[in-house]
Write a structure and sequence with these properties.
The complex is a heterodimer. Chain A is of the alpha+beta class. Chain A has eleven helices and seven strands. Chain A starts with a helix and ends in a 9-residue tail after the last helix. A four-stranded antiparallel beta sheet of chain B has the order 1-2-3-4. A two-stranded antiparallel ribbon of chain B has the order 5-6. The chains are: A alpha+beta, B alpha+beta.
């Protein structure tokens, strides 16, 4: 199963993003923003999954990869004003760089959309204590004090400790979350939450291969989510899973159900692999990754056969 | 019926299932082998169906012997002393497999669908359909049978069956204004025919507990007046 997951990663999950091209693009944008903001800009850096090397391929073919660049401003303003500042800059940049189609004002950033398959998100923030920065949570719009650079360092450290297997494992987990979102027709998990949960879990814990890693991750993630335990930001200290309990849009039960399904499927795959039943192991993985699901026709035939014969439903005391 | 005579009969009845053989072990008949569930060579299950010395009055027990079905209740497999496949709830056993029917009826009506459902779970992570565990599933069954979900009405219907008050011309115990024949007669007759009083009494007790619990919860609003159950 490990080899099948490796092939899945290489063929279907690794983003088809040209890093060299993207690097020159964000370098150009950062230089321009620096020129235009002058003294208002304290520092800027690339962050997010692009920088953490945990970005995954988009499931929808027309969607673009977001490269997040944080601009730390020397202003003590609210989000709206920070976005206004960045929007003014973005307008000028669009006029100057032909490769950019347009800019979009988003919830907590300004997106520069390139003709290529990526966009660069200009994320404004302000300095905070202890070398941290205050930026805004994209789902809840509330200020968050953290340090994206230390997240990058944290993931890198754990990845090295785990023989560079953590980042691929995180990509497998994020791909699962993308498929959950596709099925639900809305996002259920925040990628950052899953990434940090995986990194914290495997900070002091080994996994023998990707299947074992997924098995440990889903078992523990299910337990934590079901018990409503907090998942603390390793830098800022806030609960990065609190979005699951947002009163107007609670997602916790949906998250628990999805994690239980994943936990059971991977546990079955582990069991079948131990029995040398590779076909059944792949079938179990097909419950959470469409890539492995080659038997949806068989399932549909069983479903219609059992329904038409009014077959008895199983029941346990 | 002598065991050898019963064994001969069982062997004839399973003739269509070429992967199965019947043999007598310590006074019980075991039907063992690989069961073809109509989904190709790769989706066959190793099974052991045990008919004890009370058969055909006792229900057969079915075991999956290949270890493919996890031994957990969520996968409808009992563990411990009562181990075996949870094919369906006792309320439906006799309807599907009446006393005296050939064992092939049991295999085709209960065992094959159970394993087809297991394959569906293996592929999709869910059963085509299933009852909830425990009394919640029994509640679902009665709701489907009677077409009502109100525990008090279900209890009245069960009690009428226990009291043998199942007659077309009598007013329906559900509390509607129609006679039984135009209301719940068919479903009450089904209970009367396929269910034994012990199970019905147990279910009635459980519905009574639900109603009492509901009454306790609404006592403040309802005053002291309790509904007679």
């Amino acid at each position: 199963m490990h080899d099948s997951l490796q092939t899945f990663l290489t063929d279907k999950i690794e983003p088809n993003l040209q890093r060299k091209r993207t690097k020159s693009a964000h370098r150009q944008v950062r230089d321009l923003v620096g020129e235009k903001l002058g003294d208002k800009l304290i520092t800027d850096f690339v962050m997010g999954s692009y920088k953490r090397h945990t970005m995954t391929r988009r499931l929808k073919p027309d969607s673009k990869y977001d490269v997040d660049v944080m601009f730390v401003l020397n202003e003590d303003h609210e989000l709206e004003e920070l976005l206004n500042t960045m929007e003014e800059v973005a307008k000028e940049i669009v006029a100057e760089i032909d490769d950019i189609e347009e800019y979009r004002r988003q919830r907590v950033s300004i997106g520069l959309r390139y003709k290529d398959n990526f966009s660069i998100d200009l994320v404004p923030g302000v300095p905070a204590d202890d070398g941290c920065y205050t930026l805004h949570d994209s789902k809840e719009l509330k200020p968050v004090t953290t340090d994206p650079l230390r997240h990058i360092e944290f993931i890198k450290t754990v990845n090295i400790a785990r023989g560079k297997a953590l980042k691929p494992l995180i990509k497998l987990i994020k791909r699962w979350a993308q498929e959950v979102a596709l099925e639900a027709d809305h996002g259920v998990f925040k990628s950052f939450h899953l990434e940090m949960l995986a990194a914290q879990l495997f900070e002091d814990r080994e996994f023998s291969d990707y299947l074992d890693g997924l098995n440990q991750f889903f078992t523990e993630a299910y337990r934590i989510t079901n018990a409503s335990e907090k998942v603390l930001d390793p830098v800022g200290g806030g609960d990065i899973s609190s979005y699951l309990d947002k009163p107007e849009n609670p997602r916790r039960q949906e998250a628990i159900d999805a994690l239980k399904k994943a936990k059971d499927a991977v546990a079955d795959a582990v069991r079948h692999e131990a029995d040398d039943e590779a076909r059944l192991a792949r079938r179990a993985m097909g419950r959470i990754y469409d890539h492995f699901n080659t038997e949806s026709g068989t399932a549909a035939a069983i479903s219609s056969g059992l329904a038409s014969s009014n077959a008895p439903k199983p029941w346990s005391e | 019926m002598a065991v050898s005579e019963l064994l001969d009969r069982i062997q004839q009845e399973i003739a269509d299932h070429s992967g199965l053989v019947a043999e007598e072990i310590d006074g019980a008949i075991h039907i063992t082998g690989r069961l073809d569930i109509g989904l190709g060579d790769e989706d066959q299950f190793d099974i052991d169906i045990v008919l004890d010395d009370s058969y055909p009055y006792s229900m057969p027990r079915t075991y999956e012997t290949g270890g493919r079905v996890p031994r957990v209740l969520d996968r409808h497999y009992y563990t411990g002393d009562d181990a075996g496949c949870c094919l369906c709830m006792p309320h439906l056993f006799r309807k599907r497999f009446p006393v005296g029917a050939p064992i092939s009826v049991y295999i085709n009506q209960l065992v094959v669908p159970y394993f087809q459902n297991q394959v569906h779970y293996e592929i999709t992570g869910s059963y085509v359909s299933e009852y909830a565990h425990g009394f919640a599933g029994i509640y679902e069954y009665y709701t489907e049978l009677f077409g009502v979900s109100e525990p008090l009405i279900i209890l009245r219907l069960i009690k009428a069956v226990l009291a043998r008050d199942v007659r077309g011309a009598r007013p329906c115990p559900c509390g509607g204004k129609r006679k039984q024949r135009k209301c719940h007669l068919k479903s009450m007759k089904e209970l009367k025919r396929y269910m034994h009083d012990g199970q019905l009494t147990l279910d009635a007790e459980n519905f009574k507990k639900i109603i009492e619990h509901q009454q306790d919860a609404v006592m403040a609003d309802a005053g002291d007046k309790r509904i007679s159950i």
